[in-house]
Amino acid sequence: MSAPEVIEGDVAAGWAPRTWLGAPAPGGLALPPAAPTMAWLYSPRGVYLDDRHLVVADSGNHRVLIWHGVPEEDERPADVVLGQPDGTSEGPAAGGRGPEHGLHLPTGVLIHDGRLIVADAWHHRVLIWDEVPRRSGRRPDLVLGQPDLGSAEPNRGGECSARSMYWPYGVAVVGGRFYVADTGNRRVLGWAGGIPSSPDEPPDLILGQPGPAEREENRGEGVGPASFRWPHGITGTPELLLVADAGNHRVLGWRPHPGGDRGADLVLGQPDPYTAAEFPYGPQRADRLRFPYAASLDGDRLAVADTANNRILLWHGVPTASGQAADAVLGQPSFTANGENRWSGVARDTLCWPYGLWLHGDLLAVADSGNNRVVIWQRA
């Protein structure tokens, strides 16, 4: 049974924008410059935040930016750029220099145990630095999904296998297991021992497909609790794994974590695990999602980027029931609204296609992709 519709509620829940990183918005539009800078962004899709770092996948500029220290002033330039030779260059593979030198639409970013992890989606690989770089241009120490840094073919240039990737968009470490949202293969890969130590170390878990060679949408069948269309963001707790299945307009949850391929126990954004309807583009609800690309759970608070509805939904406790409605909404004046920038100009508290987010205590970093910026929100 779906949760009841919520028209008005705890709209901002004490959250307010604190820091704006990226292009300003003269005349109500936030546009990137003709040439990149270390301060401005172009369609960022991934973000990570902790006490000492902010990491942004500046996807449209095919680079990753790192701030050492959480920025507190607007438009502060980043300290480090990866994927480009300098802070004013752009283009896939470092402007055509090759995948060994650059990135192609990086999306997921993560720091875990002092290591930086980047999902280099259109190079069909995940890159790992053994420490967070403090200088620009440093090359990664390990590549997953490809045999070496110079290779960038989908599924290693062959058929889908346990060791190959096709558009990996999301990365996470949850409950000690390292996860990759292998989006183009419509599956999630998991390594129980944590981050692999070599490119050839296969995952012990393939979730969403019946075997390592299969890659069809929704397993080639109708949507169900064990299938994906576009798995993207991954988050959770040691007891709960959550995957944002953007193409099916839902978030799936497994409690406990799956030891093998099995159906989810929880679904958010849809009335049941067999429904994947896109809720009509009109008045929205607190229990529906449209293309949710990211989710972040910290403590007992869950945030989901409800991307096509131009809003962030918040649950004040870890959801326990399928169809559970959100408790608060950011970026819109109510749960029913969903306009890009509220059908007005760009303001500090508006959103336009938020693709990525990261909850860290009372801070929430949002990759507000359509507005070419990252905004750090703070809870009073």
From TrEMBL:
<dbReference type="InterPro" id="IPR050952">
    <property type="entry name" value="TRIM-NHL_E3_ligases"/>
</dbReference>
<feature type="region of interest" description="Disordered">
    <location>
        <begin position="193"/>
        <end position="223"/>
    </location>
</feature>
<dbReference type="Pfam" id="PF01436">
    <property type="entry name" value="NHL"/>
</dbReference>
<dbReference type="GO" id="GO:0061630">
    <property type="term" value="F:ubiquitin protein ligase activity"/>
</dbReference>
<dbReference type="GO" id="GO:0008270">
    <property type="term" value="F:zinc ion binding"/>
</dbReference>
<keyword id="KW-0677">Repeat</keyword>
<dbReference type="InterPro" id="IPR001258">
    <property type="entry name" value="NHL_repeat"/>
</dbReference>
<dbReference type="GO" id="GO:0000209">
    <property type="term" value="P:protein polyubiquitination"/>
</dbReference>
<protein>
    <submittedName>
        <fullName>NHL repeat containing protein</fullName>
    </submittedName>
</protein>
<dbReference type="InterPro" id="IPR011042">
    <property type="entry name" value="6-blade_b-propeller_TolB-like"/>
</dbReference>
<dbReference type="GO" id="GO:0043161">
    <property type="term" value="P:proteasome-mediated ubiquitin-dependent protein catabolic process"/>
</dbReference>
